[in-house]
């Protein structure tokens, strides 16, 4: 695997929609060993987390105050996210971040975990630990699925 492919895997794993759900299969398809694919994808997925936690804790309170329809949309979206996850956070506390991040489905992952940490006031250091654990679990699930599908062919 060349340097460009490594950057592609890191970039795809760091991106908000694909995260490691996209980066890990790309790494496997590029010929990386399962261990290297896992490590590279997890590293890429965790790369933006400290920056997101820092930025979102400052931006989330300001978003509903944006002028015009953008502020209204932001307020609705944030309220929807809060309603959607309030029960889970009431039951599990900060550990709910692990579940939100670990399930490799759309609208879950490290980016969503960072947003929820900001919404629910979880300190960045603790949030990073829970998000990292979720990313590690999600990586294991995606790797198992990727290897299982690859062995079928």
Describe this structure in words.
- The protein has helices at residues 3-14, 19-29, 34-46, 49-59, 69-92, 96-102, 110-119, 124-152.
- It is globular.
- The chain has one domain.
- The longest helix has 29 residues, at 124-152.
- Helix 6 runs antiparallel to helix 7 (110-119).
- It has 153 residues and is mainly α.
- It starts with a helix and ends with a helix.
Structure in a nutshell:
This protein is an all-alpha fold and 153 residues long.
Fraction of residues in helix: over 70%
Residue-averaged pLDDT: 93
Task: Please mark out the parts with pLDDT under 50 across 5 or more consecutive residues, or reply none.
Answer: none
* Net shape: globular
> How much strand content do the residues show?
under 5%
- Largest sheet, described in full? none
Q: Can you give keywords for this protein?
A:
globular; 153 residues; 8 helices; mainly alpha
What's the SSE blueprint?
Elements: H1 3-14, H2 19-29, H3 34-46, H4 49-59, H5 69-92, H6 96-102, H7 110-119, H8 124-152
């Amino acid at each position: 695997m060349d340097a460009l492919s490594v950057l592609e895997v890191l970039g795809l794993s760091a991106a908000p929609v694909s995260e490691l759900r996209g980066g890990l299969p790309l790494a496997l398809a590029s010929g990386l060993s399962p261990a290297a694919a896992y490590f590279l994808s997890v590293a890429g997925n965790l790369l933006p987390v400290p920056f997101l936690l820092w930025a979102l804790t400052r931006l989330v309170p300001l978003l509903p105050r944006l002028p015009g329809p953008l502020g209204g949309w932001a307020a609705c979206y944030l309220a929807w996210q809060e309603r959607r996850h309030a029960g889970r956070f009431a039951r599990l506390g900060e550990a709910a971040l692990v579940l939100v991040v670990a399930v490799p489905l759309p609208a879950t992952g490290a980016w969503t975990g960072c947003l929820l940490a900001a919404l629910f006031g979880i300190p960045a250091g603790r949030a990073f630990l829970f998000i990292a654990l979720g990313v590690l679990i999600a990586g294991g699930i995606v790797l198992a699925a990727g290897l299982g599908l690859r062995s079928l062919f």
